[in-house]
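Task: complex structure prediction.
Instruction: return C-alpha coordinates for all chains below.
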Amino acid sequence: MNSQSCVNIEKEWDIVSARQLGRNLARKLGFGTVDQARIATAISELARNIYLYAGSGEIYFDIVEDHPKKGIRIRAIDQGQGIEDIGKVMKDGYSTSGGLGAGLPGVKRLMDEFHISSVPGAGTEVEVVKWLR
Amino acid sequence: MRIPILKLHNYLLISIQIELDDQTAIQFQEDLLHKIHETGATGVVIDLTSVDVIDSFIAKVLGDVVSMSNLMGAKVVLTGIQPAVAMTLIDLGIHLKDVPTALNLEQGLIKLRQTLEE
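Output:
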Protein backbone atom coordinates (compact mmCIF):
# COMPACT_ATOMS: atom_id res chain seq x y z
CA MET A 1 0.00 0.00 0.00
CA ASN A 2 3.02 2.25 -0.23
CA SER A 3 2.87 2.89 -3.96
CA GLN A 4 4.16 6.31 -4.79
CA SER A 5 2.89 8.59 -7.56
CA CYS A 6 4.64 11.59 -9.00
CA VAL A 7 3.68 14.54 -11.19
CA ASN A 8 6.38 16.55 -12.92
CA ILE A 9 5.68 20.27 -12.73
CA GLU A 10 6.94 21.94 -15.88
CA LYS A 11 4.02 23.75 -17.41
CA GLU A 12 0.99 25.49 -16.03
CA TRP A 13 -1.44 22.65 -16.74
CA ASP A 14 0.69 20.34 -14.55
CA ILE A 15 -0.64 22.32 -11.55
CA VAL A 16 -4.15 21.10 -12.44
CA SER A 17 -2.93 17.52 -13.10
CA ALA A 18 -1.18 17.42 -9.71
CA ARG A 19 -4.21 18.58 -7.75
CA GLN A 20 -6.55 16.21 -9.64
CA LEU A 21 -4.28 13.26 -8.89
CA GLY A 22 -4.04 14.29 -5.23
CA ARG A 23 -7.79 14.72 -4.92
CA ASN A 24 -8.48 11.30 -6.47
CA LEU A 25 -6.00 9.67 -4.13
CA ALA A 26 -7.56 11.47 -1.14
CA ARG A 27 -11.04 10.35 -2.19
CA LYS A 28 -9.90 6.73 -2.57
CA LEU A 29 -8.36 6.90 0.90
CA GLY A 30 -11.70 7.97 2.33
CA PHE A 31 -11.23 11.70 2.94
CA GLY A 32 -14.47 13.76 3.00
CA THR A 33 -15.20 16.50 0.48
CA VAL A 34 -13.88 19.31 2.69
CA ASP A 35 -10.54 17.60 3.29
CA GLN A 36 -10.38 16.66 -0.40
CA ALA A 37 -10.73 20.37 -1.21
CA ARG A 38 -8.08 21.27 1.39
CA ILE A 39 -5.65 18.70 0.00
CA ALA A 40 -6.28 19.70 -3.63
CA THR A 41 -5.83 23.39 -2.77
CA ALA A 42 -2.62 22.77 -0.83
CA ILE A 43 -1.23 20.83 -3.81
CA SER A 44 -2.25 23.65 -6.13
CA GLU A 45 -0.35 26.19 -4.01
CA LEU A 46 2.75 23.97 -3.75
CA ALA A 47 2.74 23.20 -7.48
CA ARG A 48 2.33 26.87 -8.36
CA ASN A 49 5.27 27.78 -6.11
CA ILE A 50 7.42 25.29 -8.03
CA TYR A 51 6.20 26.59 -11.40
CA LEU A 52 6.63 30.28 -10.48
CA TYR A 53 9.84 30.24 -8.47
CA ALA A 54 11.84 27.19 -9.55
CA GLY A 55 10.53 26.68 -13.10
CA SER A 56 10.26 22.93 -12.65
CA GLY A 57 10.14 20.24 -10.02
CA GLU A 58 8.20 17.23 -8.85
CA ILE A 59 5.30 16.50 -6.56
CA TYR A 60 5.27 13.06 -4.93
CA PHE A 61 2.22 11.49 -3.35
CA ASP A 62 2.10 8.54 -1.04
CA ILE A 63 0.09 6.97 1.72
CA VAL A 64 1.53 7.09 5.21
CA GLU A 65 0.59 4.89 8.11
CA ASP A 66 1.36 5.59 11.73
CA HIS A 67 -0.77 2.99 13.41
CA PRO A 68 -3.70 3.48 13.85
CA LYS A 69 -3.53 6.67 11.80
CA LYS A 70 -3.51 6.74 8.02
CA GLY A 71 -2.97 9.72 5.81
CA ILE A 72 -1.76 11.22 2.57
CA ARG A 73 1.71 12.68 2.26
CA ILE A 74 2.66 15.18 -0.41
CA ARG A 75 6.22 16.22 -1.11
CA ALA A 76 7.01 19.16 -3.38
CA ILE A 77 10.62 19.14 -4.49
CA ASP A 78 12.50 21.52 -6.74
CA GLN A 79 16.08 22.37 -7.60
CA GLY A 80 15.39 26.08 -7.83
CA GLN A 81 17.12 29.01 -6.18
CA GLY A 82 15.93 28.01 -2.71
CA ILE A 83 14.62 30.26 0.04
CA GLU A 84 17.01 32.56 1.92
CA ASP A 85 14.78 33.31 4.87
CA ILE A 86 12.18 30.64 5.62
CA GLY A 87 10.81 32.64 8.57
CA LYS A 88 9.90 35.43 6.17
CA VAL A 89 7.98 33.28 3.65
CA MET A 90 6.06 31.67 6.51
CA LYS A 91 4.60 35.04 7.52
CA ASP A 92 1.08 35.73 6.29
CA GLY A 93 0.96 38.31 3.56
CA TYR A 94 4.51 37.81 2.35
CA SER A 95 4.86 37.31 -1.38
CA THR A 96 7.57 38.02 -3.88
CA SER A 97 5.33 37.47 -6.89
CA GLY A 98 2.63 40.05 -6.20
CA GLY A 99 0.10 37.33 -5.48
CA LEU A 100 -2.25 37.29 -2.55
CA GLY A 101 0.54 36.04 -0.32
CA ALA A 102 -1.54 33.15 0.97
CA GLY A 103 1.15 30.71 -0.14
CA LEU A 104 2.97 28.61 2.44
CA PRO A 105 1.26 29.76 5.67
CA GLY A 106 -2.05 28.94 3.97
CA VAL A 107 -0.80 25.48 3.01
CA LYS A 108 0.30 24.91 6.61
CA ARG A 109 -3.19 25.73 7.88
CA LEU A 110 -4.82 23.44 5.30
CA MET A 111 -2.74 20.41 6.29
CA ASP A 112 -1.97 18.63 9.59
CA GLU A 113 1.80 18.46 9.26
CA PHE A 114 4.14 20.80 7.47
CA HIS A 115 7.90 20.59 7.05
CA ILE A 116 10.05 22.78 4.86
CA SER A 117 13.74 22.63 4.14
CA SER A 118 15.60 24.76 1.69
CA VAL A 119 19.19 25.25 0.65
CA PRO A 120 19.80 28.62 -1.04
CA GLY A 121 21.05 27.95 -4.55
CA ALA A 122 20.15 24.26 -4.44
CA GLY A 123 16.41 23.90 -3.98
CA THR A 124 13.45 23.51 -1.70
CA GLU A 125 11.49 20.59 -0.30
CA VAL A 126 8.10 20.97 1.33
CA GLU A 127 6.48 17.94 2.95
CA VAL A 128 2.88 18.00 4.13
CA VAL A 129 0.63 15.33 5.60
CA LYS A 130 -3.14 15.17 6.13
CA TRP A 131 -4.41 12.46 8.48
CA LEU A 132 -7.73 10.69 8.04
CA ARG A 133 -10.09 11.48 10.88
CA MET B 1 -10.51 26.52 -23.35
CA ARG B 2 -13.02 29.40 -23.28
CA ILE B 3 -15.73 29.87 -20.67
CA PRO B 4 -19.08 30.74 -22.32
CA ILE B 5 -20.65 34.08 -21.34
CA LEU B 6 -24.42 34.33 -21.84
CA LYS B 7 -26.35 37.57 -22.20
CA LEU B 8 -29.79 37.89 -20.62
CA HIS B 9 -31.38 41.36 -20.89
CA ASN B 10 -28.91 43.68 -19.14
CA TYR B 11 -27.11 40.85 -17.42
CA LEU B 12 -24.29 38.52 -18.27
CA LEU B 13 -24.43 35.00 -16.85
CA ILE B 14 -21.45 32.72 -16.47
CA SER B 15 -21.43 29.23 -15.05
CA ILE B 16 -17.93 27.87 -14.60
CA GLN B 17 -18.15 24.13 -15.22
CA ILE B 18 -14.57 23.22 -15.99
CA GLU B 19 -11.44 22.73 -13.95
CA LEU B 20 -9.91 26.22 -13.88
CA ASP B 21 -6.27 26.46 -14.84
CA ASP B 22 -4.43 29.77 -14.66
CA GLN B 23 -4.57 30.47 -18.38
CA THR B 24 -8.31 29.79 -18.65
CA ALA B 25 -8.93 32.06 -15.66
CA ILE B 26 -6.94 34.93 -17.17
CA GLN B 27 -8.62 34.43 -20.55
CA PHE B 28 -12.01 34.53 -18.85
CA GLN B 29 -11.11 37.80 -17.11
CA GLU B 30 -10.30 39.37 -20.47
CA ASP B 31 -13.34 37.89 -22.25
CA LEU B 32 -15.72 39.11 -19.56
CA LEU B 33 -14.44 42.70 -19.67
CA HIS B 34 -14.72 42.76 -23.48
CA LYS B 35 -18.24 41.33 -23.27
CA ILE B 36 -19.28 44.01 -20.74
CA HIS B 37 -17.90 46.66 -23.07
CA GLU B 38 -19.55 45.16 -26.13
CA THR B 39 -23.02 44.58 -24.64
CA GLY B 40 -23.25 47.43 -22.12
CA ALA B 41 -24.31 44.93 -19.47
CA THR B 42 -24.85 46.45 -16.02
CA GLY B 43 -24.86 43.25 -13.98
CA VAL B 44 -22.88 40.01 -14.02
CA VAL B 45 -23.41 36.74 -12.16
CA ILE B 46 -20.53 34.28 -12.00
CA ASP B 47 -21.82 30.94 -10.75
CA LEU B 48 -19.22 28.73 -9.06
CA THR B 49 -21.48 25.80 -8.11
CA SER B 50 -19.39 23.31 -10.10
CA VAL B 51 -16.01 24.63 -8.98
CA ASP B 52 -14.44 22.40 -6.36
CA VAL B 53 -11.04 24.07 -5.98
CA ILE B 54 -10.31 27.78 -5.65
CA ASP B 55 -6.68 28.39 -4.77
CA SER B 56 -5.04 31.75 -4.06
CA PHE B 57 -4.37 32.48 -7.71
CA ILE B 58 -7.91 31.73 -8.93
CA ALA B 59 -9.28 33.72 -5.96
CA LYS B 60 -7.12 36.68 -6.99
CA VAL B 61 -8.30 36.47 -10.60
CA LEU B 62 -11.95 36.35 -9.47
CA GLY B 63 -11.51 39.20 -6.98
CA ASP B 64 -9.74 41.27 -9.63
CA VAL B 65 -12.41 40.70 -12.27
CA VAL B 66 -15.03 41.98 -9.82
CA SER B 67 -12.99 45.17 -9.24
CA MET B 68 -12.27 45.58 -12.95
CA SER B 69 -15.95 45.20 -13.86
CA ASN B 70 -16.85 47.74 -11.15
CA LEU B 71 -14.45 50.19 -12.75
CA MET B 72 -16.31 49.75 -16.03
CA GLY B 73 -19.66 50.28 -14.33
CA ALA B 74 -20.94 46.71 -14.06
CA LYS B 75 -21.77 45.00 -10.77
CA VAL B 76 -20.64 41.41 -10.31
CA VAL B 77 -22.01 38.82 -7.90
CA LEU B 78 -20.29 35.47 -7.26
CA THR B 79 -22.75 32.69 -6.51
CA GLY B 80 -22.83 29.07 -5.44
CA ILE B 81 -19.50 28.82 -3.62
CA GLN B 82 -19.44 25.27 -2.20
CA PRO B 83 -19.08 24.72 1.58
CA ALA B 84 -15.72 22.95 1.12
CA VAL B 85 -14.44 25.81 -1.05
CA ALA B 86 -15.55 28.46 1.48
CA MET B 87 -13.78 26.59 4.31
CA THR B 88 -10.63 26.16 2.25
CA LEU B 89 -10.51 29.84 1.27
CA ILE B 90 -10.72 30.96 4.90
CA ASP B 91 -7.98 28.45 5.89
CA LEU B 92 -5.87 29.97 3.13
CA GLY B 93 -6.47 33.41 4.61
CA ILE B 94 -8.52 34.65 1.66
CA HIS B 95 -11.68 36.50 2.71
CA LEU B 96 -12.76 38.22 -0.53
CA LYS B 97 -14.33 40.87 1.71
CA ASP B 98 -15.31 43.37 -0.95
CA VAL B 99 -16.76 40.79 -3.29
CA PRO B 100 -20.58 40.52 -3.41
CA THR B 101 -21.75 36.93 -3.12
CA ALA B 102 -25.05 35.05 -3.00
CA LEU B 103 -26.12 31.51 -2.20
CA ASN B 104 -27.20 30.60 -5.73
CA LEU B 105 -27.94 31.99 -9.17
CA GLU B 106 -31.49 33.01 -8.21
CA GLN B 107 -30.36 34.91 -5.10
CA GLY B 108 -27.55 36.41 -7.15
CA LEU B 109 -29.98 37.87 -9.67
CA ILE B 110 -32.16 39.27 -6.87
CA LYS B 111 -29.09 40.85 -5.27
CA LEU B 112 -28.04 42.38 -8.59
CA ARG B 113 -31.48 43.83 -9.21
CA GLN B 114 -31.56 45.37 -5.72
CA THR B 115 -28.08 46.87 -6.11
CA LEU B 116 -28.81 48.28 -9.54
CA GLU B 117 -32.15 49.79 -8.51
CA GLU B 118 -30.66 51.67 -5.55
